[in-house]
Amino acid sequence: MNAGFETVRLSLDVPFRIARGTTETTENVVVSIEHDGERGYGAAAPDARYGETTATVEALLPELLEAAEAVGNPHAREAIRDRLSETVRGHPAAKAAVDVALWDLAGKSLGVPVYRLLGCSAESTRPATSFTVGIDRTEAMVERAEEAVAEGYPVVKLKLGTDRDVEIVEAVRRAVPEATIRVDANEAWTPTEAVNMCRDLEAFGVEFVEQPVAASDADGLRYVYERSPLPIAADESCRTAADVPAIADRCDIANLKLMKTGGLTPAVELIHAARAHGLDVMCGCMVETNASIAAAAHLLPLLDYADLDGSLLLGSDPYEGVPVSEGRFDLGAVDRGTGAEPK
Hints:
single chain; alpha/beta; Enolase-like, domain 1; TIM Barrel; eight-stranded parallel beta sheet; three-stranded antiparallel beta sheet; 12 helices
């Protein structure tokens, strides 16, 4: 195998604010792996919340790619996963870039889309992705939600963690009464605040509440789960399959991200673990190019919920991905690999 990588700096369509801070640009490290005339693509979207930066990804990728090349077979995903784990502990975004590129390469070399390699069908029922509205002035969030619904997105996710959270949700619900609304606090509330907020938000038909309390507060998450009238999704509290048993009695939904699990291979493990513990499953994302979002879309037949709008938040994306219409990814349009290709 012949591999390389490049870092791309991407501007967001509008500044994106969550409870932890505001983002106007993002950097992805795109990996390409060539084997027998085919080339697969993947990308890392590192997040300092999980101890990764562009610099750490760039520093580790030569070793990780060398480890993958030592296995020599892009179809030997378990062996490669083990070799990557032996090479470095943690750093899931860097590993995800390699793992995703290998899945893309494997699908292309066999002439089949990745969802087929996962045992899925393009005709399977697939959840629509939400469109995320970052924290802003209430009027600006309402306008952004209205635009998303007008463009055909049936699900709006609102980032919360302000002193006017109920006001925001109430205003958005009035503006888009037909939309499904989810909220994400990104660890911003105390357990007591979270329970009170869930009770207030129930009146506005909120579908579920994502990560209401700090990931480090396991008892707080259980406190909220046991008292909330709304379903609770665990995001920052759930990184890999190994975390699932600890959250199984503290939430209703496990939210995976390729950048947290380390790629598609461990993401599938998390899905199976969550199902075994009676949890629903959602796949989310960071702000990512289609070089990685396209891969996550192939998990849709295995999911209950999706939040795969990372590339939709970019001003422009240098990679093509799986076509999206009214919030739904058209997996049937992908004939091989993940569908990610440079524009």
